[in-house]
Structure formats: structure tokens, C-alpha cells
Amino acid sequence: MKNILTIDWSAIVLGSEEWSFLPEVALRTLIMFIIIITGLRFMGKRGVKQLSVVELVVIIGLGSAAGDPMFYKEVGIVFSLLVFLIIIMLYAGLTYIVGKSKKAEDMLEGKPLCLIQDGVFVLENFKKENLGSDEFFAELRLKGISHLGQVETAIEETSGELSVFYFADENIRPGLSVMPDSLNRPVKNIETTGYYSCTFCGYTENKAVGNAGCCPRCKKEDWVEAISKKRIS
What we know:
CRO Repressor; 4-stranded antiparallel beta sheet; 3-stranded antiparallel beta sheet
């Protein structure tokens, strides 16, 4: 019982090192911090503000190379510096290739994708991105959108950002609501004449009382009442 309760606080706090290693950790951290700053400055402002796929890989690589020498005594800084130089050279090479070849750019960075066109989802592009409706609706709400009828075009840029182009107020049409829980009560039978939207693709049409039928775009059968509010900017 006595052995079970014995705790080696020295091993917990210091691991296998001694107190004398702490100043060296501080010096190593300072050196690696300067190297990281230098590497990011080389990448330019875009590399810090808006990461592409290649830049994200570079950042992860630099972080991994920088971490170990900071507190592992057996890892020398010179080896980490070599890793930094190789990563930055690879980044510079890929940046040059991307600048010269549109095909290489599309392969490495991807292409912008149109996700909404004239108030309905572009389904084939949604399948490529594996986007969930809740996640996408949240992005639209953050841009002041309450339903798809306000949106002329929405494009997912290669950076992952969403660019939205709106209908003018006089051209806004009824559309699928993107508000929380808007898809929770779909119907297959219409009890009140009005505009209804397909819960799957956003297609909207005026429906009479009776069976709602299939959506002509996606063949789904679930509908919700559309809304036609103007956008408040």
C-alpha cells in the first residue's frame, strides 16, 4: 500500500532532465521562435492570413520541426534548421510551379465551387465537398441570410471561404429557410396553398392543397414552407 501511494514528483515535473536544463530550454525556444518568424516572413502575408492546402502542410511541418528541439535535449537545433530549410525550399518550388501551371494549381489548391445558383443547391458540387446542411446553413446565417431565395450565387473559394452574391430586394423570391430547426418538420401533404421548398435541394414552387409529390430536381418527397423575407444588411 505504501508503494502505491508513493509519487515521484521530480519525474512528473522534470521528467528525465535536471533543473539545470531549464535555461537551455529557454534558449532553444528563443532560437526556434526566431527561426519560425523568419520562415513565416519568407512565406509572405498571404501565408499567414489565408492558408492554402500547401501552406497548411508547410505550417504543420514547421511546427513539428520547431517543437522537438525546444525541449528534447537529444535533438540538435542544426537538424531542425535543416528541416526548415528543406520545407521552405519545397514551398518555394511548389509556389513557382503553381504560378506557371494552371493544371498544377488546380491539383494542389483545388477549384472554386458553386454551391448555390439562383436560390437552389448545386447538388453535384455539394457531394464533392461533403458539407453538412447545419454547417453550411450556419455559414449563410453569419452572412445575414435567412433563406436561399435571397442568394443568387454562393461560391466556396479554394481557401474555404464562402463568397455570396445576393439578389436585389425586388428580385428576392421564396426560398428554403436556413434558420435553426427549419428542416425538422417536413411534410408530404400540403394543407395550405403556398410556396414550399424541397428540404434536400432547395427547389421551391407554389403548391396547392394535396399530395406534395416529388421534387423535379432531386426526386425527394420532403417539403417545408418557404419564406420570402428581404435581407437586412
